[in-house]
Structure formats: structure tokens, C-alpha cells
């Protein structure tokens, strides 16, 4: 089957580094779904405002695939090393949400926040800016929700969070960053964006989001922001 | 993006008529996921047994698309008439799970029941026998489950069920049908397989499942089975 791009995702994740590894209801990050001219038809969205959540079916880009530190192409591999397992344990690709799949399709449930000029505004999408979208479906709780599902190896890692401190966060510094971008960055950093389990407190990371670069280190379960600057 | 078929679904739904309209946890219907030779690799499933539920991403076939009484091809339309709304009210295609989408991709959460000879056995899939599968992902409750999601127009129709009675069900008749096929048929009939809201108690329907043909009528909220015969 040949998939046609119906829309593109637009958000502050211009850098692959920092994209949350799964969609999360509590994510404040907004994404705009901008339809391609052929699919920008008001009628096609009739009734969608009655749903609180939607599914996005989208494509991993070559760029995004590098997040996991895997091969530099979208070739698939029968086993992958999930970052949440420290990057040194192999799991079957169909037991993970890794991008290195036979068909590099991503699946994310997002919250429908609003509609504007024929675009959809959603929150919680774990996608790079410019990600191609292939389908949008309503989320149906009676079919799609399994609150008590067993989450395999992901279970024990699902609530890992880092405390975010430092420059402009716990220290009052005026970087000029807008409130919204700062709130998003705090969320992104709390999710531990480091590739695999790198555990070197001296290592400085830089992450771009919404036109801002944040510099930080990680000590134990604490992110210490060193600087926030306009790109 | 060009999708490669990684597996085919095998189940008793050799007839498009009778396939439940969504996947449901309570569905007893078993489907076997048979991998194509290139993807039949034990390693690719390592760790999958730790998950209770999986996602299937699959393709609507031309045949299946006829279920909804829509156009006789997979052309998409900005609006569709959901059968659950009586087939006479138009909704935007992205507000429905209709097959007549720009990319005719289906999405179903299923329960992982077992593994056998490198195949996966799942329950609850709402797919035709022979459906191509493009991806299999683990279901992650912390990301995918939204118990309180608002279901739009689908909400008020989600629990509609018919009572199943008659030949071989409430009347003791020995058709020779195996226990398992009968249990599945009772479930299928309870879901009201009629296209749209046809409401003619005199109209006799025939449905094929697992090599058996069931003949039935519907009176109000009651299915009356007239006959069960081997095809």
C-alpha cells in the first residue's frame, strides 16, 4: 500500500533530541496538524469536536530515527535496544515502539485541544516538527482503552521522572524565554531526554526547542539547567 | 511511504458481513497472525509475551470496504454515513473509523492470547480473514489508555446489543456446529451485523462464519436464528 501524506505536524521540536519517547496525556506540548491542500476540507472534520482524544498515524523520518542511537537509516532489525532499558538489552522489535520497524509507522494518542483555520491543535504528540501524518482517527474508549493492560518491560520504567532545577527554573534568571516554552522545556527535561542511560554528571547536553537552546547536566535524578539562550 | 505486508490475519470471518465494527475486549473471536516468510523471525517477538494487548495496523481490503454499503472501491470521501447512526447522517471521515479514508489503514487493539509456531494468536480483532497486517506494536496503558475519553457520536451507541435467540441457541437443535463457532456467532449476532438501520422483521439475513451459514431475522432488539448449516 502506498500512503499519501494528508498533513504535517508543526511544533517546537525542531531538534530530534528531546522528543518524549511516548505520547502522554499530561504533556503540555502543543502540535498543530496542518492539512495538505487536497485534504484541507472543513467537512472532513465534521463531528470531531465531540472527541477528547484522537489517534495520529504518522511516519518516522530518517532524522527522528537517530534519536534511539540506532543505525543511520530506517532499516529494520528483528531486535532493538530500548533506551529505557539502558540501551544494552535487546528486545524483539514487535515488543517495542522503536522506529526501526519493517514499516516505520508511528502511532500516538493525543488530546484534541482546538481547531483553528482548518488545522487541528493537539497536545501530547511525541513527534518531530514536520512529521508527515497519514491518518487521523477518533479515539474510542470502549474499543481502545485497556486501563489494566500489562506493559511488559515498559511497566517498571513508565513513571521515571527527573527533578528539574537550575537556571531560570529554581534560580531566578531572565533569559527572556516565553512562559509556554519554559513550561514545555521543564516537561521535556523531566522525561530524561538522554540517549540510553548515559550517566556522566560532567557531560553537558544541549537541546533546542521552540527557538531556544537549553544547556543542562544530569546528576542522579536531577536535571540542572545551566543556560537558556535564544538560538 | 510504501507499506510492506508483514503478516496476514487468519480467522473465521471469510465473509465481510458480520465482522464487528470495532475491536472489543469481550470479543471471543480468535485471529491468527501468520507472518510472511521474511518477517517470521522468533527474535522479533522477544518480550512480547509480557504484554496483554497489542496494536494491529492493517489494511482495509476492497471487499471489506463494502461492509458499510459505501462506494464499491476504496475511494475516500470527506464525509461518510456511519452505520451506527442509521446510515443517513453524514460525519467527517476523520471523526469516524470508516474504511473510506485517504489512506485505508485500520487500527485495532487486540488481546494477546498465545503464540504458536511463530504465529501470534489474538482475540477481539475486527478484521476479515486474509487482511494484510503492516505493523504490530505493544499496547502501553500509560500512553494509550484514556478511560474517560469523550467518544463523540459513538458514545450513545457503544453498548447497543441484541438478544440472540432461536435455532440452536434457545431452541435445542443439533446442527453439528462446534461449540467455539457457536459462541463466536452468538457474539457476532449480538453486535447487530445489519448494514445501517435496516428494520424489517421479515427480512432474512445469511451470514457465513468458520464454514457455517447462519440464517436469521431481527425483530426489535432480538435476533431470531432460523437455521445453522454447514456451507
Walk me through this protein's architecture:
The structure is a homodimer of 231-residue chains. The first copy, chain A, is mainly beta and 231 residues long. Chain A has two domains: 7-63 and 104-144, Elongation Factor Tu (Ef-tu), domain 3, CATH 2.40.30; 163-230, RelE-like (YaeB-like fold), CATH 3.30.2310. Chain A is 9% helix and 31% strand. Chain A has three helices and twelve strands. In chain A, the strands form three sheets. A six-stranded antiparallel beta barrel of chain A has the order 1-2-7-6-3-8. In chain A, strands 9-12-11-10 form a four-stranded mixed sheet. The longest helix of chain A has 12 residues, at 179-190. Chain A starts with 6 loop residues before the first strand and ends with a strand. At the A-B interface, strand 3, strand 5, strand 6, strand 8 and helix 2 of A face strand 3, strand 5, strand 6, strand 8 and helix 2 of B.
Write a brief structural summary:
Chain A is mainly beta. Helix content of chain A is 9%, strand content 31%.
List the helices and strands and how they pair.
The structure is a homodimer of 231-residue chains.
Chain A: E1 7-10, E2 30-35, E3 53-59, H1 62-65, E4 79-80, E5 91-92, E6 105-116, E7 119-123, E8 132-138, H2 141-144, E9 163-166, H3 179-190, E10 205-209, E11 212-219, E12 222-230
Parallel strand pairs in A: 9-12
Antiparallel strand pairs in A: 1-2, 1-8, 2-7, 3-6, 3-8, 4-5, 6-7, 10-11, 11-12
Amino acid at each position: 500500500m502506498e500512503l499519501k501524506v494528508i498533513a504535517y505536524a508543526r511544533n517546537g521540536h525542531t531538534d530530534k533530541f528531546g522528543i518524549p519517547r511516548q505520547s502522554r496525556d499530561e504533556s503540555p506540548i502543543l502540535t498543530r496538524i496542518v492539512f495538505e491542500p487536497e485534504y484541507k476540507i472543513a467537512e472532513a472534520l465534521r463531528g470531531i469536536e465531540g472527541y477528547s482524544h484522537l489517534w495520529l498515524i504518522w511516519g518516522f523520518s530518517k532524522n527522528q530515527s537517530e534519536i534511539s542511537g540506532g543505525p543511520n537509516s530506517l532499516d529494520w532489525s528483528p531486535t532493538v535496544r530500548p533506551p529505557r532499558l539502558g540501551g544494552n538489552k535487546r528486545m524483539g522489535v514487535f515488543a517495542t515502539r522503536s522506529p526501526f520497524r519493517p514499516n516505520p509507522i508511528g502511532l500516538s494518542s493525543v488530546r484534541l485541544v482546538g481547531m483553528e483555520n482548518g488545522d487541528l491543535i493537539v497536545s501530547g504528540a511525541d513527534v518531530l516538527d514536520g512529521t508527515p501524518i497519514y491518518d487521523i482517527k477518533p479515539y474510542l474508549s470502549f474499543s481502545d482503552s485497556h486501563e489494566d493492560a500489562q506493559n511488559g518491560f515498559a511497566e517498571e520504567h513508565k513513571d521515571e521522572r527527573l527533578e528539574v532545577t537550575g537556571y531560570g527554573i529554581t534560580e531566578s534568571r531572565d533569559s527572556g524565554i516565553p512562559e509556554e516554552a519554559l513550561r514545555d522545556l521543564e516537561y521535556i527535561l523531566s522525561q530524561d531526554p538522554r540517549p540510553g542511560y548515559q550517566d556522566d554528571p560532567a557531560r553537558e547536553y544541549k537541546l533546542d526547542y521552540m527557538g531556544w537552546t537549553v544547556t543542562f547536566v544530569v546528576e542522579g535524578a536531577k536535571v540542572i539547567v545551566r543556560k537558556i539562550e535564544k538560538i
